[in-house]
Design goal:
single chain, mainly beta, 3% helix
Length: 143
C-alpha cells in the first residue's frame, strides 16, 4: 500500500477537529469520476480500522485518515499534504509525508506516504493506484 496507517488502540481516543476534517465532510451528489482531481475515499481494515480520504490537485496530494479504536467507539482524523505532480495517468509524490499522533496514552495513529511515481487508472468510476499487490481502490466522493 503506497500510503499506510497504523492504528493501535487499547482504549478510546478523543476527537478534536483539524484541517483534514473537511475531507470527510466533502461530498457531491454526482462527482465527476472521469477525472482524478477531487476527493477520493477508501476503507481499510488491514492495519486497523481506518477510513481514508485523498484530495488530488495538479501540484499536491492531501492525505487524511480517520483512525478508529478497536471497539469502534472513538476516532481521530489526522493528515498531511505533500507536493506532487498529478496527471490523469500517474502521480509523483515528491517528498515523504507523515502524520502521527497519540490520541491517548495507549492509542497512536500513524499515516505516511513515500516519494515515488504511481500509476493511476479510472475504470467504471473506480480509481486504482499502484501496482500488483499494492494496488489501492478508491471511489470519488467530491470534485
Amino acid at each position: 500500500m503506497w500510503i499506510a496507517a497504523i492504528c493501535l488502540a487499547l482504549a478510546g481516543c478523543s476527537g478534536e477537529e483539524n484541517e483534514y476534517d473537511a475531507l470527510f465532510s466533502a461530498s457531491s451528489a454526482t462527482p465527476n469520476t472521469g477525472t482524478v482531481f477531487g476527493v477520493w475515499e477508501s476503507k481499510s481494515d488491514n492495519t486497523g480500522p481506518a477510513d481514508w480520504r485523498v484530495r488530488f490537485t495538479p501540484n499536491s496530494i492531501m492525505i487524511a485518515s480517520r483512525c478508529v479504536s478497536d471497539d469502534r467507539k472513538s476516532s481521530k482524523i489526522i493528515g498531511f499534504t505533500v507536493p506532487a505532480e498529478v496527471t490523469e495517468q500517474h502521480l509523483v509524490i515528491k517528498e515523504h509525508g507523515e502524520a502521527s499522533e497519540y490520541i491517548a496514552s495507549d492509542f497512536k495513529c500513524t499515516i505516511y506516504a513515500e516519494p515515488g511515481e504511481r500509476n493511476v487508472e479510472i475504470v467504471d468510476g473506480s480509481l486504482t493506484m499502484g501496482v500488483g499487490e499494492s494496488e489501492d481502490h478508491w471511489h470519488k466522493v467530491a470534485d
